[in-house]
Structure formats: structure tokens, C-alpha cells
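task queued by scheduler; priority normal; single chain, no ligands, no partner chains; default sampling; output format set to C-alpha cells
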Amino acid sequence: MAFPRIGSFSLLFLAAACQRLDSGSIDDGADPSAGSTGSTGTVVDESDDGTPAESEDSDPDSGGPTEFDCDPVAQSGCNGEEKCTVVLQAGQIAYTCVVDDATIDPLGGCQAALGSGIDGCPAGYACLADESETGLCVPLCLDSGDCDNAVCIPELQHDIPYCASECSPFEGGCATPLQCRRLDDQFGCGFSRPDDVGGQGEPCTPQQDAGCGEGFVCLPGGLIPGCSSDNCCTVVCDTNADTCDTPASCTPLFDAPAPGSEAIGACIVPS
């Protein structure tokens, strides 16, 4: 029996005029309550048999609720030779039991098989890929409480939620094809697009820092020296060691940073 569940997750960053907050952090107009990338904020209800049931967070505009035949995190609802994994059914996310064909280690390279779910990844993991079809076995989740030292976010192509490991924008360290990308209040290992390669002062789109390469974020052009667009990429910096070129200075990037992210900033012209 299929159990209706939440609709597709989405990453929405709203572009608006930027202003300095009283705390001195950068406000790029993103609304953390609208399509959070720091956490999916998913409410996970359960039916009497422990299988995830329909959530009050279902999105009527998503094209239909996610279907749950089993629990991809607890790995319950399948027999001993099966795993609960994610598939796409008519373009919608569904969790169902398939043959457990695990031959690939966690975070190992793989070939996405969202039609069948038989992708070689171990139970609790699924092969998700970027637009160039470079795949990786990543841990599945329903909310950030399912992740260890990671945040539950949707991947870019199908909004399938997975655990994005915390990372440092100064050190990187994410498994290919993931990059250390900005979330709501920290950085995590996320998927990127082929054109996410922009450097200092290059045009971009605030939503998901689209157009900016790893180590850069997209902010309003008025804050970035030499920017001739509404929004431009600017480099991420450490507020404890300001290395920005004058007249820019390293300004805290997050208003309410996650622990360990307090010193992450971006090079902008102070207002």
C-alpha cells in the first residue's frame, strides 16, 4: 500500500534589496522561512505501523504528494533482500522496496537509476547525479534530524532530499561532483550546475548562488566593487583575517550562523 507523503522539496531564495543588519551580517534578501536550504524542516508523521504517513506540510502546488511504501531512513517496510530507496514515478518522488544490490561504498561514484532504484548503492543511500550525470551514493533523509554532521537538503534536478555534509568554504573537501555551497546558516556539500563557475564581480542569480563557482556567493551588485549587474559573485572570506581588496571588507555572511560558521564572511563594500 502506498502512503501519501510530502510534496517535492524546493530551494527558494528570494532576491531583494540588500541592507546591513544591526548585527553587521549581510542580508541578501533571502527568506530563510521560504524554501530553507539549511534544513528541509519536514514534519514526519507516522502511521500505526511506523511507516511515514501524510504530512501537514504537503505542497498542493508540487504536482502531488510523495509516495511512501517504506521508510528510507529506518529501512523498514521491506523484506531482508530488499532496500527502501527513492525512485521517480511519473516525475514524482516515491520511496519503495527494490532488490538490495549493494556493490558500491557510501559516497562512491555510481550511475543514477531513478527509474528502478537499482543503482548499486547500499541501503539508506541512493545514487543522485548532477546535470552532467556524474553520480554519487549519498545518504537519504526526510529532515536534518536524520543526518550526522550534515543538513538535509534537496538536490537540484528532482528535489530529492539527501544529507549534505557540513564543509568549510575555505577548505572544500566534498566528494565529486559535490561542492561546498552556501546553505541557510552554514556551508554544505551540495550539487552544482555546469555554469556555476563565476568568479569575482561576474553576474549571477541569488537563488542558490547560481552562476557562482565554489568559494563565491551571489550578492546584490551595489555591494560589490566593479559589478555592473544587479547581482554579482563575490569571494567568501574569513572575518578573522580580512583579505578583501579595498574598498571591500570581510563582512559576516550569516545573520544567525550555525556553530562554527561565525567567522564566514563575504567581500563587500560596507554600507
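post-processing summary
- DSSP finds no helices and 17 strands in the chain.
- The longest strand covers residues 82-89.
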